[in-house]
Amino acid sequence: MARLEILGMGWALPKTEITNSFLHKEVGLERGQDWVDSRLGIERRFSVLSKEYIVKTKNADPSLAMTHARAHGETPVTLGVKAAQKALKQAGVKPENVGWVIANNDTPFETIPPTASWIAKELGAGPGPHCDVNSACSSFARHMQVLGDLREDALPEFVLAVQSSAYTIRTDYSPKSIDGYIWGDGAAAQVISTRHQGRISVEPMIFETKAEGADDIKIDAIGHFLQNGSLVREFSIRQTCEMFEEIAARKGLYAEKTWTVAHQANYVMQNSILGHLHLPESKHIRNVREQGNIAAAGAPSAIAQKLDKLHKGDQLVYAVLGSGLAWGGGYMEVQ
Predict the structure, then answer these.
(1) Beta partners for residue 219, in sequence order
(2) Domain span at residue 324?
(3) pLDDT score recorded for residue 153
């Protein structure tokens, strides 16, 4: 397995900020602040859609939402490019030196070409096997696993991994909606190499899927996001706990000394995970309260936003989950 080094990390959020008050008072979602506090713990999120569009249409037709987002100037590709530019700048790597862009996009505006090709084109990346590898909210773990499973001599000098999506274009904002309180849009990116020491090293350790759960989280080609909420919540908590325990045991880690980061789906769910495993909240990295659930970009964006406050030798365990059902995790160490 190749040893992966992350030389730079970046993230991006769209311009439109959506607060709970806006969703309740202006959009007309029936559940208010008390329900959000007790069930989700999310205070704000960001969208590629304008507030006016959400209020007027309640996003009844996702295909029209894509057209609006394009006119608004923000898409999963533009967000991915912005996140990638930050990561490249931090890494000190020029776009033309990137030999492979690997991306995901749960909410593509184009069926073809892959999102990775669009991002590579907009960045001015060099030629390479640019492609999408998508496993929804667990895509960061999948990207690390795909790269880690390859021989070092099979990888170019620099790889750019990008996780991007715009779930708000697939969100139902009618009065009884719960999903309107959950989803935000965003992107994350990492510049990875096996030939240069980075800011943080990565050891991918787990990636699995449960095919019988394929119907539990889904988005139709032209429809809204749908999930079996209670089942997915229970599965996510249990599976995250199991991954944290397995990785900690394999690496001989101590809870009080180890940073943790989970899928940024729900602040209250994360509190449940911390309580089950007696993990210190002070060493749990998260951003879901401030930017909502931004799918695969959630966990890596949280790490990117915390990276400058971490110190050499700090250890971190990541565990993420997504549609499929899929889950993955691994170990990181700050260099």
Answers:
(1) 225
(2) 200-334
(3) 87
Residue whose token pair is 């904002």? 173
Confidence at residue 225, expressed as pLDDT on a 0 to 100 scale? 87
State which residues of the chain have pLDDT below 70.
none
| 274 and 127 within one domain | no
Sole residue written with tokens 């008390």: 34
- pLDDT tens, 269-278? 999 999 999 9
The full DSSP string for 105-143 is ESS-S-SSS-HHHHHHHHHT--SS--EE---GGGHHHHH
Answering whether pTM is above 0.85, one says yes
What's the pLDDT score for residue 262? Answer: 98
| Token pair 């139709």: residue | 220
Yes or no: say if 319 and 262 are a contact pair by the CB < 8 Å rule. yes
Can you read off the two tokens belonging to residue 76? 């999963």
Query: Is 275 in a helix, a strand, or coil?
Result: helix
Tens digit of each residue's pLDDT (9 = 90 or more) over 3-55: 899 999 999 999 999 999 999 999 999 998 899 999 999 999 999 999 999 99
Contacts of 153 (CB under 8 A, 6+ apart): none
Which residues does 264 contact at the CB level (< 8 Å), separation at least 6?
286, 287, 288, 291, 293, 294, 298, 299, 301, 302
- Verify that 136 and 251 share a domain, yes or no: no
Grouping H, G, I as helix, E, B as strand and the rest as coil, residue 191 is strand
H or E stretch at 225? strand 225-227
- The tokens for 75 are 């898409």
Last residue of a domain, one of 178, 193, 208: 193
Tell whether 70 and 164 lie within a shared domain: yes
- What pLDDT shows up at residue 21? 95
Q: 136 and 212: one domain?
A: no
Asked whether residue 213 falls in the same domain as residue 159, the answer is no
